[in-house]
Amino acid sequence: MPSYKMPCLALALAVAASHPAVAENSSIDLKLFGKHEIEGGLSTCHLAFWQSNKDPETDKYAYLIYMPFDQDGVPLQAVVEIGTEKIALTESARGDFDPPSRLGYRLFSSIDHETHMLVRIEEAVVTGSLQTVGKATVTVVRQDLPPFVAGAKGVIGCPGTSAPETAAAIPSEPVSDEGAAAGGPSPYTGPVGLPLAPPVLLASTSEVPDAVRREIATYAPDQCSEPETLAYPGQRYAVNDNFTLWEVPCFLGAYQGTSIFAITQNPPADWATMLSLPNPPALEGENNAQMMNPEVFAEKGLFISTSLARGEGDCGTYQVFRLMDAPGETLEFQLMEYREKVNCDGVQSEPSEWPLQFQPGE
Predict the structure, then answer these.
(1) What does the pLDDT read at residue 256?
(2) Residue 246: pLDDT above 60?
(3) Which of 94, 220, 239, 247 has its CA 20 to 30 A from that of 47?
(4) What is the model's pLDDT at position 194?
(5) H or E element that contains 214
(6) Distance from C-alpha of 199 to C-alpha of 118, rounded to nearest angstrom
(7) Radius of gyration of the chain from its Cα atoms, rounded to whole angstroms
(8) pTM higher than 0.70 for the full model?
(9) What is the reported pLDDT for 28?
């Protein structure tokens, strides 16, 4: 099964001799920095990503982003360097749920929402409390500027005194790029939906069709921000020659985010339909439009929504949907699994293992 990469959104990388910018001719003047520039030095446990052709142990300047953890393992503010400025970022959303996290997306944002960094983890190895990332893509976004993209490697956890390369050599739990974005392994093993083409990250909010904006404003005005205020523009999936599926990110909080999905013609014209998320029969109330912390398994047409009741991630709801044809030459989400853990007991487990509340009959 092939691996799919994020589309190229920036100019090629270039490396200068001293304290180099990562790219030439880019409006985002992202700088590499070294361990000697990190206040207090590297913490015992931290998140760090460096440029893929650099080695933070031997190169004076290598890091793209660094985020320390405190003694309780709570992440503190991350830091990046753009131009002559050190910018503090906070992790605002992620697209995975494994403790420790593995493949997926992590979004970091500045307090003024002027700077955003999206990290896509594509290959990783987990050894004890350390996740060693062998392949990642870092995308930096600032308003009215072209996005900047760099290949990266990194670590998340507690490397101790070992170099990242040493930890990476321990093949205890290899993970490939066949994750959510590529439509790979999913904890759900039931019937699948309509296959989708690989996701295409939108370069600008202007690519969100007017018909989709109108649909959201009409039917879910209280569930989604205006696209101009979002941390990143979203992405689209080709369903077939007739339909395109659009993912519009809505809200981002400290530990989870939401998206709304809509379909248009392919290519889009003056028509759009926002897709609602059906509830299980026993759950009263109107269907929701927001998918919480969405994971998209494109090749299988599967969508997983995990709503955490609190930051510890020990309770909440877990839903699996599939995309299917619907009457009237349109598409719809079908609920395939609904799980809920009500007791927030401090015991973390995989959301896919929470108590099953609903599954459609054969």
Answers:
(1) 72
(2) yes
(3) 247
(4) 94
(5) helix 210-219
(6) 15
(7) 21
(8) no
(9) 85
Mean pLDDT of the 79-91 span:
92
What does the pLDDT average to over 225-244? 76
With vertex at residue 175, the alpha carbon angle to CA 173 and CA 176, rounded to the nearest 5 degrees, is 155
Instruction: Give the per-residue pLDDT at 131.
Output: 82
* Torsion sign across C-alpha atoms 241, 243, 244, 245: negative
The structure tokens listed for 303 are 């969508």
pLDDT at 309: 87
Amino acid at 299: E
Statement: residue 121 has pLDDT above 70 = yes
Q: Which residue has the tokens 């459609």?
A: 360
Eight-state DSSP code of residue 23: B
Are residues 215 and 273 in contact, defined by beta-carbon separation less than 8 angstroms? yes
Half-sphere CA count of 224, side-chain side, radius 13 A: 30
Q: At 79, phi and psi to the nearest 5?
A: -140, 140
Nearest one of 136, 149, 35, 95 to 258, comparing CA atoms? 95
Helix (H, G, I), strand (E, B) or coil at 7: coil
**Token output for 158:** 């507690």
C-alpha dihedral, 23 to 29 to 35 to 37, nearest 10°: 150
Which backbone phi and psi does 244 adopt, to 5 degrees?
-125, 135
pLDDT at 193: 94
Say how far apart CA 233 and CA 206 lie, in whole Å: 8
Beta-carbon neighbour count of residue 344 at 10 Å? 14
Please write the tens of the pLDDT for every residue from 297-334. 988 999 999 998 887 788 999 999 999 998 888 899 99
Distance CA 7, CA 23 (A): 17
**In this structure, what are the phi and psi dihedrals at residue 182, rounded to the nearest 5 degrees?**
-95, 0
Sequence-distant (6+) residues with CB within 8 A of 282 are 357, 358
- Measure the CA–CA gap between 103 and 124, rounded to whole angstroms: 7
Q: What are phi and psi of 216, to 5 degrees?
A: -65, -45
